[in-house]
Amino acid sequence: MSPYLAAEDLSMFGHDPWWLVVVKAVFCFAFLMVTVLFSIVWERKVVAWMQLRIGPNRHGPWGMLQSLADGVKLMLKEDVIVKRADKVVYVLAPIVAAIPAFMAIAVIPFGPADNEISIFGHRTAMQLTDLPIAMLYILAIASVGIYGIVLAGWSSGSTYPLLGGLRSCAQMISYEIAMGAAFASVFLYSGSMSTSRIVEQQHDRWFILLLPVSFIIYIVTMVGETNRAPFDMPESEGDLVGGFNTEYSSIKFAMFMLAEYVNMVTVSAVSTTLFLGGWRAPWPISGFWAGANHGWWPLLWFVIKVQLLLFFFIWLRGTLPRVRYDQLMKLGWKVLIPVSVVWLMLVATVRALRNEHYGFADIALYAAGGVLTLLVLSFLVDMFREKAKEPERPTAGPAAFDPMAGGYPVPPLPGQTLPPVPRRRSRRERELIVSGGTDTVSDGSTDGKEASDG
């Protein structure tokens, strides 16, 4: 049966008693908090190792309680509200940024829905809940969180936070379009937007193997969505001091940091669910161990995959420098969005041919023909465009260098020379010009002398 014709079966959700729902919700919250506390220490340890430093080593064994000490320190610091801020929005902005970060984990499966576990004598699935449109719910929650950053920058009453908030908004719009196209490719292959069913459809082959381009696009977009290096332009301390959270301190600043790291965990969990088989054990283990995907073991595989993706975040931060803002926008609009749309069309074509019972060889031939046609058309367009530009090229030499063209002095580029500086007149020449010239001076001085003699 085609996956498009399969009905959603989510009957295992919605029947837990209220106290069990509370227990599972508390577990999801605790999972995020513990992972965040560990990730902060791990990030500082890994970056210190990359830079040949020691890293945190004072609080707790091997410095593992450093993030907890940082949280206590931030809560005990003075809570300052700037005078020009819109106080209501200024206080609500960190809450708006933090709460949606925790909500997306509600639909992430930690284990198989049909393999229920026992909690206090009750059988339940290792997932808080699931929806037929669970992935759309995740996209909506991620979009709401950006309002906290934008409102924080606007309500601070300062220029730099406002610029940081606007940057974050533009960055989210640019990268969420490509992220949605990457999700759509997964929807086409799984035939569902339910997270539990998407994991079920990867029982024989993970989607990272079937949709490698979608995985790469999502990896890039999830770094941009979380405002992490090298895409941390909303917090660029080189030109924005601290970005949208410049005017925040104490617990409100801590909530912004918490939202950032929780978002890292969330997008890593989503990537694991969509492309890395979710809670399923890796192939070598699942091949010889039949019980690897039963009981509490799926939770272990899920946590390992999430931690590997978090290490990828840390590795990028310790390796790549921050990009310029124009490069960030160019990558989003001119590279990721066109590639994701073309890839989505290709995936849809392949799925349509498979539904029509075409063989793999025929599909590969059609796909290769389509790619070759696009390459030939692109080459012809570029060739004719260059020919059209040739008559328009000016034949005159390069324009003279103007050091004040931008309104402020700038140094010359290679190949440019400064205009000659006019020679400074001597004091004698300036006196002659002021007095009217040599003849006037001599005549005046002579007349004056003669008049005095007379």
Account of the protein in words:
With 454 residues, the chain is mainly alpha-helical. The protein has a domain at 18-283 and 293-324. Helix content is 63%, strand content 1%. It has helices at residues 18-50, 66-76, 87-103, 134-155, 159-190, 195-200, 207-210, 212-225, 237-240, 250-275, 283-288, 297-319, 325-355, 360-389, 427-435, 438-453; strands at residues 117-119, 122-124. It has a two-stranded antiparallel ribbon with strand order 1-2. Helix 5 (159-190) runs antiparallel to helix 8 (212-225). Keywords: Cell membrane, Membrane, NAD, Oxidoreductase, Quinone, Translocase, Transmembrane, Transmembrane helix, Ubiquinone. Residues 409-421 have a biased composition (Pro residues). Its EC number is 7.1.1.-.
How is this structure best summarized?
The chain has a domain at about 20-285 and about 295-325. The chain contains 16 helices and two strands.
- Classify the helix fraction into a percent range: 55-70%
How many strands in all?
Answer: 2
- Measured by DSSP, the beta-strand proportion falls in under 5%
The main β sheet shows up as: 2 strands, antiparallel
Poorly predicted spans: 1-6, 439-454
| Order of strands, widest sheet | 1-2
Helix and strand run? HHHEEHHHHHHHHHHHHH
Number of helices: 16
